[in-house]
Amino acid sequence: MLKELKEYLKPKSVEEAWSLFRDPAKNPSLFLTGGLSVAQREDQTTKTLIDLSGLLGDSVSETATDYILDGNVKIADCIEKIDMPFLKEALHSVGSRQIRNMSTIAGTLGQRYSWSDTITALLALDAIVEGYNGSTVTMSLDQYLKNRAPLLVTKVMIPKRYDRGAFFKFSKISYDIATLNLAIVFQIEKEEDPLEETVVKGCRIVCGARPGIAILLPRASATVQGKTFSSLRRDLLPIQSIAAIESNVSSGAEVSAEYRQQLVRTFVERGLRRLIEPGENTQ
Question: Which of 142, 148, 231, 253 has the smallest set of CB atoms within 10 Å of its CB?
Fold first, then answer.
């Protein structure tokens, strides 16, 4: 419940919405897209709701290299309209069907939920964020999450470059928020000679709900890149160890840091084994 809520505003443009958001007389304010953040929110500070639902669009378009999502696209629409098995797998783990029908891309990224399955999956895919903060800006999702500066998210671009992916989530029940989640994606290079082994051209390993916001694990990812599938099978243990340390997990109310580290090790091993099995999980 928003106990101090005074105003509900429906601006006619993104520029007007940003101006209202920055108006000291209306702060603290909250951007509203799908409404899920309001339904779940408990605070005693927010004074103003700024409704963006009519400004952002709700279409999913496609180019040869990317999917382009308007800010008001629902999670359920992404599952239906984006032909990426890894992303469908990850987004199916987001809450219940009702939550997936309410939750929007802009709302999810705007709130920067530390336990977000959607953010972990999109960060693994190296998504690009477009937004407005007085002018139109474009940045990587990684940069957006790190700089923490306010941004009215308007679009998200998802590159198609990753051929395979695996997503894991640990929670008390299937539709609960994650205690830890982890994603691995591959860009593979298939040799013309059938006797030559497939090489991992690119890899991104991302860990979320640490309990902090999702982060890329660059050292673990780099350790996988350039390896053949057979060499990965031999090197699973050191990759697991690097990921467990690099994830920088900590203890929370429900689990210890040691337990989260073990989850990282387990998910990295399962994910890599799944992705190096020939013919499995190809997008």
Answer: 253
